[in-house]
Structure formats: C-alpha cells, structure tokens
Specification:
CATH architecture: 3-Layer(aba) Sandwich
Order of helices and strands: EHEHHHEHEHEEHEH
Shape: globular
Bound molecules: zinc ion
CATH class: Alpha Beta
Number of helices: 8
Helix content: 40-55%
CATH superfamily: P-loop containing nucleotide triphosphate hydrolases
CATH topology: Rossmann fold
Strand order of the largest sheet: 2-3-1-4-7
Length: 221
C-alpha cells in the first residue's frame, strides 16, 4: 500500500508515519530525511543537493525525485511505505504519478488550524541523529534536551520558528492544498481531523487503512 500523507507543517504527518511504521512495518519516507542522509553520506545525489543548498537555494525537483525513486526501489518498500511531505505541489504529484509505481494508493489529509500548527511547532524538538520527534508539553523526552531513543542532544529546527512557520503555512495553503482536491477527485483521499491527540489520529487512520488493505471486494464485512 502506497500511503501519502498530506497536511500542513506540524499537522502530525511524521507522528502518523511513525505509528504506521510500527504497526505495519511500512517505512516512513520523508524527502527531508532523504536529503539529509544523502548529504551526510556524500552520495552522488547528495553532493548535487549540497551544492544547491550551499548556494542558498532549494534542492531542485529533479534531484529530490531521483532520491525518492532510488529510495522506493529498496526492498523494504515492496509491501508499501508512507510518504511524509511529498508531493508538496501539483508538479511533484505529476512526477510521482509518472514513476508508474505499482500497488494501490491511499491519501490522508491531516487537517489542522494554523493556530494549532504554530503552538505545536514552537514546542517541537527533534533529534538530529535518529529523527525522533518530541513536544515539550505533550511528548517531552524523559530527560530534558536528550533523545530517549539514542541519547543525542535535541534541537529546534531552524524552520520551526514562528516567522518561518508563518511563511511555510502560506506556502502550504498556496501550493499543497490544491493536492487535496486532486486526490479527492481520484477517489483516494481521506480527511482526518489532525487537531486531536496523536493516538486518536493514528487510530482513525489505521481503521481506514485496515479496510483498504482488505481490498474493495471485502470492504465493509
Ligand atoms: Zn535520537
């Protein structure tokens, strides 16, 4: 099952992806993580990305797509995977379709208000080593400032400050929201209230997914 998660920054995509990974073993694939990994390991695509970022720009779509294609070809993606944060715009959605990937597709739109996003991201801390995500109020690490999983020092991402978040939300509303209509028209879309506790959101997503995994013929049994 190819699972696509749509939603504003801070809507809980990473947390839902992690919940699906632990429930079904579907790897969580985020282009941000792929880029960081490729740059860290200095792969050929990583070097291209690093030089583009070094010039202060964004990594171009072709490079991101090439990274994604490489990742989706690995054996752990055979049964399915969760895309977290891709596609971000209609042109990326076209590119994804053009890859001609096998298997059914299901899309979840995690809906949250801008106010909730601002509150969540201001409190978000991430582990630069293992990508674990924390919330200072709702999901604090056991020891302040330290990752429960690997012991690395937690950081606030540069793009999680209020000014940057407002800009990211603007971009989201302009570029990513149109994807909701696109996937709704294809019949793949499920809207989820992402403003609730993570456990409730994941339970709803899993219920819909269970039905989809059984296949259309047996759905509703
Ligand atoms: Zn960690």
């Amino acid at each position: 099952m190819r699972i696509i998660l749509l939603g504003a920054p801070g809507s809980g995509k990473g947390t839902v992806a992690e919940g699906l990974r632990s429930a079904y073993g579907f790897p969580k694939i985020s282009t941000g993580d792929l880029l960081r990994e490729a740059v860290r390991e200095k792969t050929p695509l990583g070097l291209v990305a690093a030089s583009q970022m070094g010039k202060g720009g964004l990594v171009d779509d072709a490079t991101v797509l090439a990274l994604l294609r490489e990742r989706l070809a690995r054996p752990d993606c055979r049964e399915g995977y969760v895309l977290d944060g891709y596609p971000r715009n209609l042109s990326q959605a076209d590119s994804l379709d053009a890859l001609g990937l096998a298997g059914p597709e299901i899309v979840f739109d995690l809906q949250v208000s801008d106010e909730v996003v601002l509150e969540r991201l201001a409190n978000r801390r991430t582990c630069p080593n293992c990508e674990a995500i924390y919330h200072l109020v709702n999901k604090p690490p056991k020891k302040a400032g330290v990752c429960d999983v690997c012991g690395a020092a937690l950081v606030q991402r540069n793009d999680d400050t209020p000014e940057v978040i407002r800009e990211r939300l603007k971009t989201y509303h302009a570029k990513t929201e149109p994807l909701v209509a696109r996937y709704a028209a294809k019949g793949d879309l499920h809207r989820i209230d992402g403003g609730r506790a993570a456990g409730d959101v994941i339970r709803d997503v899993r219920r819909i997914l269970e039905t989809a995994l059984k296949g259309p013929a047996r759905a509703g049994e």
